[in-house]
User: Fold this.
Amino acid sequence: MAHLHPRTELSRESIFAQMSRLAAEHGAINLGQGFPSNPPPPFLLEAARRAIGTVDQYTPPIGLPQLREAVAEDLGVSPQEVIITAGGTEALHALAEALYGPGDEVVLLEPYFDVYIPQARMAGAEPVMVPMRLTDRWEVDLSALEQAITPRTKALLLTNPYNPTGSVLSRTEAEQIVALARRHDLWIISDEVYDELYFAEPPISLRELAPERVFTVGSAGKRLEATGWRIGWILTPPGLAPQVAGMRQWSSFCSAAPLQAAVAEALPVARREGFYEALRQGYKARRDLLESGLKSLGLKTFSPAGTYFLTALLPGLEAEALVREAKVAAIPGSAFYIQNPAPKGLFRFAFCKTEAEIEQALERLEGYLKKVHS
Ligand SMILES: Cc1ncc(COP(=O)(O)O)c(C=O)c1O
Assistant:
């Protein structure tokens, strides 16, 4: 009997989809999966309505020229170094295909964002996980990172700002990581899909420190609250964009043409009209609401400096029981670890939800904690 390749083991339902499904089944407030409750901004929606019926056919696999230019202008790079992809997810996949293969290793931090592992494995490479240090904050353990490097290591894959921890690399950390990559002659994949979502200093883009070896991943979905549009990008070191774009031509070929055109129009408007400042203010208020609420329930939180995720310790609680009984969905820390143990009681909460949803989730948690502790 014919059978599917064992690789389809990677197709199992992710914890994010599972928690969203359970949340819907149990009428829970979903602070699990990271998709915004806000609609995309009107200037983006209007641009898309204008583009449909005008920009409808294939674009080059490397992207619609006006979007490559808009991304380049926004990020201060050459359009020649920009590839448009179907979201950050396809950008990361194209890079895995272009940078490593069987016998190679890619070094990552734990906790990690879920797509990195199956993508490395689909490319035939082995992920090697280095745990972050958790004290009162999340920190990169640079000596552990260096120890994880072997002659097989091809790349370091980092996220900044970081999902799930919400941490942002300090300049010193960023410089040390780049120096380490130079010492061992490694590529760096810098996943910066949350580049506009920070609450203190703007994050350092690793590319600024090592343009010759850093591939940056970006996402219009994250920036413009349109995660279902699937528009993202890669910034490559000089001269490498055509080959990397050539890899994605064999999967999606190109991203949705009218949505590329709409994002091209929207990026300069977002910058000019202070859209990102407003976005940050809104998320900062919701972060503070969630964090102060969790603290007032006596829980330990790790304040995020970026992203719309917050990690906290809920010792003795179990994610499925939380959805079923407290009717609040959050992602258990174990979902972000495959090689090292997750800190006990770790959960990730998404605060890209309405204030009313966050308030209600806090009330439900309070009631549940009283019940389990009584
Ligand atoms: C760290 C990180 N990278 C990449 C992605 C994927 O971005 P996109 O929705 O543009 O595919 C996400 C989405 O949650 C993410 O959290």
